[in-house]
Amino acid sequence: MSTNLRKPAFVLLAALVALLSSGSAQAQQIGFVRDDKPTTAGLITPSAAFSHSSSGGAIAIERHSKGIYMVRFTNLGNGLDSNLMVDAYGTGSNFCVVGGWGSPNGTDVTANVECFGHGGARADTGFTALYQARMPSDATKPTVAFVLADQPTTATYTPNANFQYNPAGAMNSVARLATGTYNVKLPDLKVLGGTVLVAGYGGPVHCQETSWDLYGVGNAVHGTEVKVNCTDIAGAPIDAEFSLVYSISETAGYAAASANGGAIFASKPGATTEYSVSNRRSIPIDGETMYAEETEKGVYAWTMNVEDTWTNSTVLATAYGAPGNYCKTQSWESTPTITTVLVGCFDAAGHPAKTRFTATFQLAGVH
Fold first, then answer.
1. How far apart, in whole angstroms, are the C-alpha atoms of residue 285 and residue 102?
2. For 150-203, what is each residue's pLDDT tens digit?
3. pLDDT tens-digit readout, 62-115
4. Which of 155, 161, 169, 308 has the highest local Cβ count within 10 Å?
5. What is the 3-state secondary structure (H, E, C) of the chain?
6. Taking every pair of C-alpha atoms in the chain, what is the biggest distance, in angstroms?
7. In b/e form, how buried is each residue of 204-222, taking b as 16+ CB within 10 angstroms?
8. What is the spatial distance between Cα 231 and Cα 227, in angstroms, rounded to a whole number?
């Protein structure tokens, strides 16, 4: 078995060897984190209110060098059948991508994050990260599928089985349609709707979903397909690797009926009064209606009415349908009656930009 999964230089080769030689991960392992101290040297322990590990093990973040971070999830598994999503956190136009993930000892998971200024130079940046590992589940209840698209110039391929998942047991595939344009097929996910997250991988690129829908022949539906676009820092199409998570009914890290978060597709980037984002391309939390609005150019508020103050949470956002633009999580807070998420979106030059986006609010809970 081989893989071209890249690792920053500070991750030892032994980590990759352990990753490739170990067995499959346990079902539905999940870990997430928020780093709001991006300039702090050495190891830090993230706030418990914004981090979680299904293993109950310790979580640590290390700033290795400017804009390069390593997150360690103790006892979370061996890193196979797994996915990592990342998002920049905070104000400003910096952005972050997936830097790779693995298991240095076959037990702990190491997730790497790389962050940049809008011009492509490495920059210390807050971030959120969501790791999950899954085993085949009930095919009659499709929930989460993911893929690491790691062959950006290949016309059509089946990605490495260790870094993709389909709840029906099928193999996902990726097709390159043109420079920087890809079609990801997720067989047997036959319910229209759900939500998508996309992150660039391994360098200063912007990747986003441009559409997702059912595919098939005639009246026969075969699954869901997601179109992805990647651009360089100037907004020009570029062949690039990316990580993608599709989820329906439940949010990115969980199985059916776990009710551990919400997700939206904010489709009205110029709406300055709140509008409902509770539709088939969303995942409601507690059955409550969710709303979005633009509060200033390129800044959006997503609100959820709730009955409790939610802790142990993280948020990730992805731009939609505007090649070269990108979105990030600015902040979120929860009170006993409402949770508010702020998302900031930018054009390739780093200027605030009206942009459609998807966003996921993830809670700790049943795995």
1. 31
2. 999 999 999 999 999 998 889 999 999 999 999 999 999 998 888 999 999 999
3. 999 999 999 999 999 887 789 999 999 999 999 999 999 999 898 999 999 999
4. 161
5. CCCCCCCCCCCCHHHHHHHHHCCCCCCCEEEEEEECCCCCCEEECCCHHHCEECCCCCEEEEEEECCEEEEEECCCCCCCCEEEEEEEECCCCCEEEEEEEECCCCCCEEEEEEEECCCCCECCCEEEEEEEECCCCCCCCCCEEEEEECCCCCCEECCCHHHEECCCCCCCEEEEEECCEEEEEEECCCCCCCEEEEEEECCCCEEEEEEEEEEEECCEEEEEEEEEEEECCCCCECCCCEEEEEECCCCCCCCCCCCCEEEEEECCCCCCCCEECCCCCCECCCCCCEEEEEEECCEEEEEEECCCCCCCEEEEEEEECCCCCEEEEEEEEECCCEEEEEEEEECCCCCECCCEEEEEEEECCCC
6. 57
7. bbbbbbbebeeeeeeeeeb
8. 14
The two tokens of residue 4 are: 């071209």
H or E element, residue 131: strand 126-133
Tell whether the model's pLDDT for residue 308 goes beyond 90: no
Is residue 16 scored above 70 in pLDDT?
no
Q: List phi, psi (to 5°) of 317.
A: -135, 150
Q: How many residues does the chain have?
A: 367
What three-state secondary structure class fits 260? coil
Compute the distance between CA of residue 128 and CA of residue 35 in angstroms, rounded to an integer: 6
Both tokens of residue 360? 């996921």
Contact by Cβ (8 Å): 305, 274:
no
Give 364's contacts (C-beta < 8 A, 6+ positions apart).
52, 260, 312, 313
166 is written with which tokens?
């389909």
